[in-house]
Amino acid sequence: MKKLSKIMIFAVLFVLALSTLAMAEADTAVKVAGLKVFYGIVIAAGFGIALAAIGGALAQGIAIKGAVEGTARNPEAGGQITTTMIIGLALIESLVIYTLVVALILLYAYPMSAPIKALVGME
């Protein structure tokens, strides 16, 4: 009976030790999965900013080209064309800034940022 109780106590302690290791492994697995998601968010934010910058630059170039052609055809309307062009350029640039804001929100307001910082050693 004494031997059986020692074996039972040893078995219970062994199972508890393995369960804590399993929980630690699960916690690390969750952190690694969160880190992979964060990598995806970083890549998506980078591509989003790149596409917004390219699109904004092309749109601004086309707008300036149109304003210059309009002023060349009708020099008297140059002031009105310039004013309208500047307002249009500001609206185009605001779209690029909105993309930047969304990318920054994705990067810095990410709910898994605290576990990732702890995993990397920043906290």
Describe the structure.
The two termini are 51 Å apart. Helix 1 packs across helix 3. The protein is built from three helices and no strands. The chain has helices at residues 2-73, 78-108, 113-120. It has 123 residues and is mostly helical. It has a domain at 44-123: F1FO ATP Synthase (Up-down Bundle).
Short précis:
The chain has 123 residues and is mainly α. The chain contains three helices and no strands.
Mean pLDDT equals 79
Spatial gap, N to C terminus: 51 Å
Order of helices and strands: HHH
Please describe the biggest sheet, giving its number of strands, its sense, and whether it closes into a barrel.
none
Low-confidence stretches: none
In percent terms, what proportion of residues is strand?
Answer: under 5%
Q: Over the alpha carbons, how many angstroms does the gyration radius reach?
A: 30 Å
Percent of residues in helices: over 70%
Determine the CATH topology of the domain at 44-123.
Answer: F1FO ATP Synthase
Number of strands: 0
CATH architecture of the domain at 44-123: Up-down Bundle
Distinct helical segment count: 3
Find the CATH superfamily of the domain at 44-123: F1F0 ATP synthase subunit C
Structural class: mainly alpha
Tell the overall outline: rod-shaped
CATH top level label of the domain at 44-123: Mainly Alpha
